[in-house]
Amino acid sequence: MTLTLSTVKSHCREVLALSQRMLDDARRGAWVEVAASEAARRIRLETLFPFVAGPTGAPAILADCIHQVLTIDREMLSLGQTQRTELNQALATLNRGERARAAYQANGG
Prior knowledge:
The protein starts with a helix and ends with a helix. The chain is built from 3 helices and no strands. 82% of the residues lie in helices and 0% in strands. It is mainly alpha-helical.
C-alpha cells in the first residue's frame, strides 16, 4: 500500500464514518449494532498505524482523526452509562414489584 496523504485521509474518513455510525446507533439504543461496527472499526484503526511513519503531514492528520474518535467514544460511553442506569432503575422497580407480590401472596392475598 502506498503511503500518501490521500490514503491517510481516506482511511481516517472510513474510521470516522464508522465511529459516527456507532454514535448514531448508540443514540438509538442499538447496542448490538454498535458492537458490530466497533469490531469493524477496530480492524480499520489498526490499518492507520503504519501511516505514522508515512508522508509529511500524516501524523497530524492521524492525531486529529484519533482525537475525533475519542470525542465520539466519550459521548458513546456517556450514552451507555445513562442507559445502564436506566436499566438498573427498571430492574429495581421490577424487583420491588416482585417482592411486593410475594409478600402479598405469603400473607394470604
